[in-house]
Amino acid sequence: MASTQTSLNNQKYVIPTNDLEQQTSLELETKDFDYSKRSQWLRAAVLGANDGLVSTASLMMGVGAVKQDIKVMILTGFAGLVAGACSMAIGEFVSVYSQLDIEVAQMKRDKQRESTNGEGDIIKEEEEKESLPNPLQAAAASALAFSVGALVPLLAASFIKEYKVRLGVVIGAVSLALMVFGWLGAVLGKAPLLRSSVRVLVGGWVAMAITFGLTKLIGSSGL
């Protein structure tokens, strides 16, 4: 009787431990899978937003260096938005599709090798297919993010007719957005927040300053 009770107690102790280990293992696998699966479009989105913000703002600042007309500035920014979004989408699609071709070719070689060795795992093959990069998803995320970033300087300048005030508002709005995008990129990439934000901010300032200065120089020289 005593031995039977001891055996039951041991069984009650072992089963929850195994369940807990299995649950912990499944949670870790799920977290790793989710992070790796979303890394492609998150990277494209963050880069696209920064590019849209900096390139469109730089174009508008460059034109604003020689043309004070608000219509010219807005049209330049809008043209930069459309051209940049299309360029980012096409570039991202081609890049990710090339990566997809490489990974699919590698999967085929691995499958042939496993077939030769008499090995095969259907579940593993399905997981590998799910983890493959998606060119359309990356292209759409890049184009959308670029457009969102480009809208910041466009909206900031749309309702201000005073030239100097307009430039100041654009610089202020872009600086704030650069800090936000830098912080977001650091959070997604698990990088130092302050360092990443300052790096993105300074990079945006340098791009706008160079574009403004060179355009001003060329415009004043009469070329």
UniProtKB/TrEMBL annotation:
InterPro entries: Ccc1_fam. It holds the Pfam family VIT1. CDD domains: Nodulin-21. It comes from the Eukaryota. Keywords: Ion transport, Iron, Iron transport, Membrane, Transmembrane, Transmembrane helix, Transport, Vacuole. GO terms for cellular component: vacuolar membrane. It catalyses: Fe(2+)(in) = Fe(2+)(out). One of its GO terms (biological process) is intracellular manganese ion homeostasis. It is a multi-pass membrane protein. GO terms for molecular function: iron ion sequestering activity; iron ion transmembrane transporter activity; manganese ion transmembrane transporter activity. It is found in: Vacuole membrane. Residues 108-129 are annotated as: Disordered. Vacuolar Fe(2+) uptake transporter. Belongs to the CCC1 family. This is Vacuolar iron transporter. It comes from Ziziphus jujuba var. spinosa. The lineage of its organism: Eukaryota, Viridiplantae, Streptophyta, Embryophyta, Tracheophyta.
